[in-house]
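Morning!

As promised:
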Amino acid sequence: MDAAPDDLLPEPFRRWFAGRGWAPRAHQLELLAQAREGRSTLLIAPTGAGKTLAGFLPSLVELAGRPTPRNSARPPGLHTLYISPLKALAVDVARNLERPAQEMGLAVRIETRTGDTPASRRQRQRRDPPDILLTTPEQIALLLASADAEPLFADLKRIVLDELHALAGSKRGDLLSLGLARLRAIAPMAQTVGLSATVADPDTLRRWLVPQRGNGEMGELVVADPGAAPDLSMLDSAAHVPWAGHTARHSLKEIYRLIERHTTTLVFVNTRMQAELLFQELWHINDANLPIALHHGSLDVSQRRRVEAAMGEGKLKAVVCTSSLDLGIDWGAVDLVVNVGAPKGSSRLMQRIGRANHRLDEPSRAVLVPANRFEVLECRAALEAVRAGAQDSAVVRSGALDVLAQHVLGMACAGPFEADALFAEIASAEPYADLSRADFDDVVGFNATGGYALRAYERFARIRQRKDGSWRVANPQVAQQYRLNVGTIVESTMLKVRLASAKSRYGGRVLGEVEEYFVETMSPGDTFVFAGEVLEYLTIHENEVRVARTSAKEPRVPSYAGGKFPLSTFLAARVRALLSAPERWRSLPGQVRDWLELQKLRSRLPGREDLLVETFPRGDRYHLVAYPFEGRLAHQTLGMLLTRRLDRAGLHPLGFMANDYALVIYGVSDMSLATAQGRLSLDALFDADMLGDDLEEWLAESALMKRTFRQCAVIAGLIERRFPGKEKNSRQVTMSTDLVYDVLRRHEPGHVLLRAARADAATGLLDIRRLSDMLARIRGRIDHVALPRVSPLAVPVMLEIGREMVAGGASEALLAEAEDELIREAMDGAGEGSG
Amino acid sequence: MQAREAVEERDVAQDGAAVTLAGATLVLDAAGALWWPSERMLIVADLHLEKGSAFAVRGVPLPPYDSRATLDLLARIVARRRPRVLVALGDSFHDRGGVDRLGPDERASLAALARGRDLVWIAGNHDPAPMPGLAGDSADELRVGPLTLRHEPEAGADEGEIAGHFHPVARVVVRGRSLRRRCFATDGRRLVLPALGAYAGGLNIRDAALAGLFGGAYDAHLVGAARTYRIAHHACLPDR
């Protein structure tokens, strides 16, 4: 940019920068110049680059130069809207903005609005808005769904979207993009500023910032100096690297020594359970009594806030945390990030690394700690990706229809809408640029009468068409329902974990919350780790799990088979490339290299593009192991479908197990023999046609699909949300979404909510799109070896058998097993009696 | 081998498991109905017809296919068992207005069910009064031989009570998987039927309200795809 700083920055600002011995950074000035030209702009900058200030400088400069409000005819409306994915971040940014504003003596009113803001202040903000309002996507949706939205936002000059990379591509992002489209309709002159970390495809985010008119219109792009390259290494543990598992126990002492040697360390793991285990293990060896804390999303909120506060005051030496701290407030003192377990994607890893060292000119320091042999490969691949600055490519997806349904109802709450105009407005939002008119009309129909082909509900419509053709809500209760339902975060039902006191089974304190489905797999007497303790599960009472402390050392910890996040496609390709190129193995630890050499000798290495399939006997069973490297979710779906097909082929599979890299199917029939005799064709087994009828049949009963549908139904407002504390009453009136799913699937399989659920299944818990891409890739490229015994590469996934729950298995067979158990029990009793 | 919870699939039962109640031999049809061969009587409970539209009235437009799904299932059980008497054990409609909201196809299905046999509507708490315009007879309860058929089980009832009302379901955990199914519940003195309605939710048989009905030991007979599975109450787990 040519403009000189003096030209762009008014006197008080220059003085302020000079007073602290700073100079405005190039990207900050560039953003000012773009703002002067009235252009919407995406700023890509690393953490610590003064990104937030850059986003606000244009607004502060404008507000400093405006005439005193007293002189104007009416009080000015809102000038700048800042939207952040985290309410804590909005509050923190407001605080950080107050300071320069005060120090420069600017008469600027800065306020936040979150779910915690008192109702009285929220009322007042509508009537008498501040100059700058900092808030979240959900609050924007609520503000826009009211009749005062127009006057409130009419004067809006700028919208700042923070951490845009974290919002785009999610349902929350969809909701925000729709709100943005409405804001632009109300205030067409407002500029949009997007703030983002480095992403693989900045153009998508640039399209977010300006209305889409069918030509992929884009905002301007400013890329800040990336700063010093991170100092990144993999812990080369002296100890034996485990074949499987995710605890990284073998590296515990080394992690502890790293913590000792640094000021403040963030230790990232992938799941809450891993966090619990690692935290506990660290305290076992914490001879120096270092202040090490635990932070994850299931802990009690007050406890999380205490940890964050202690962190801010520099009182902690380390925090073991999950993605709960991926985003958030900057802590200057963090000088080391340790990532335990596989990073799963290079973008998440970069985000985490950025949490260390917020001074731009010094490198962030991070150490990767693989927990097993495959993770060594994955860490190595991730390390090379980060050094090359290579990001995961974003998953291509369109805006979700359930979110659209929620938004359309909100727009009807704001006032009557014309379908044509609203459709055009919605299609101007990047995620919905390709929305078909038919889908839009279905969504409107859904909001009116449920959108069923059997038009039974005309009398009970929620929104109605008026004589002039515009749509409006049928009654005020509909608007009330909408307000209660706003948002796209559908928490899985959480149960409080309460410690039963010694005296009574009821009195103790609440330790935090766990997901209902986690508890459902436990029987009384089972032990698990939570809040840093080994606990025994006693009973469930209403929405509480009652637990007791126990002396058990080895808890039965049903884990999530390694992590919530599946291995990214990008990283998977890099792992495959590394495996198939022995000349690059020099960078790997010796024992891992030996392992791969042995695999080459005994079997084969998975090729870059091929699918290696091994069959071999072991014990009294026969096994088939495939190595697609497509992540656990896709492998689980694949395992379900392959098991079905093998069963149909009369090969009697007993079960399967999947991790991020491979899957194993085991059974009582010799699959090597069946292949040799031509009774089993692997090409046919892995044919993409499994995504037809087999998938449909499985979806009918899949618990994951039902959970996916439930989320869509809640977001779209078909099912009322369950609110904590109100569950007992609402249970009688809420419907089981499983029943709704069964009925709808059978009677109207093309319904808009089922389409929404299928779209989610493609990229969500079932990862069907990835599976489908993989099946297309390996067509005709299956590399099968029949082996006399288990191969070295198969060991990790084989070790998962029996350790993890059987995710598959037909439920009828399991019911029969439960019945048999009872019979055995009864027969044993008879034996004792007669003996 | 495949499990289906969808109602339409629950009707491929062959003969079903037999239980004895007050000397009468009854067959547990895997579709969730009770078959009394010697009387050629088919008993079903808690159809909750028009529950979907009852929600729609309150502004929650659930899919309107529940009555059709429930009646289709019932029609298939009837076609298979060919009963002389068909008894609906109460809560046949979700609310008083339900009959009026029935679609024409569903009305025709109901008329067909009543043709050539006795159809008895027992009163339930959702449908306490006889509903005008419905084919069949209405009754508060029905005594046949040693058995008494009523909607809600009565405390201190004589042996041989058959009831619905509670929508029993049982939950078992097998190899780390939690399975929850509709079920019959019986201690040999009384028997509670599962709800047949497509939108009828369930109450866990370990819940105090259900457990209190049975003196001590009782069994759940879980409704499966093609048969029922008998599991003792203590082997079933509570929900929450």
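DSSP finds five helices and 16 strands in chain B.

Hope this helps with the figure draft.
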